[in-house]
Amino acid sequence: MPFENPYAHAPTLPEGDEIDPRELFDDRTRPVEIEIGPGRGTFILERLAAAPEVRMLGLEIRRKWASIVDERLRARGFGGRGRVFAEDARSALPRLKSATACAAFIHFPDPWWKKRHQKRLVASVSLLEEIARVLVPGGELFFQTDVEERAQQFERWVDTVPLLVPGRPGPRVVENPYGAMSTRERRAVADGLPIVRLRYTRTG
What is the pTM assigned to this prediction? Predict the structure, then answer.
């Protein structure tokens, strides 16, 4: 009997070159937030519980976890407010309509350090340019990592994107202000690892 991938039918974005993420949820007047790589879904679940007004779109490249977390959202009564799609953010973001999201989150990305793994990197200047385009004026980009070198690289990249500006006195903030934590953030806190948190705003 041929093997059938149990996640072959993982949820994906609708077809089309311009998708309005607000149309994916129960109330298109509500603010939409995007999580790049939600993984096991801890952040998106806690964020929806903490902020009833928010709608959350997750872009997860792993079909297994996109399927599991999307089903988990429905099981917990968040199906109308949160979705996770099996999509590569690098190809999915360009399909989203401009100025339709009020926040974007990237938590502890890219554990790829060897040169031969560089093609796997998600974060890049081009990704940040797409995030800036999709954010509404005043929208926020929030990035976290426990690797200082990765944080410095991210800061250099954002410096080349004119639409993203740091707060004063700088982009680094001490606390996560969103009432939700990713699995990796919770583990880093438990292990006492220093976490770099960067917060930017999309200009008008």
Answer: 0.92
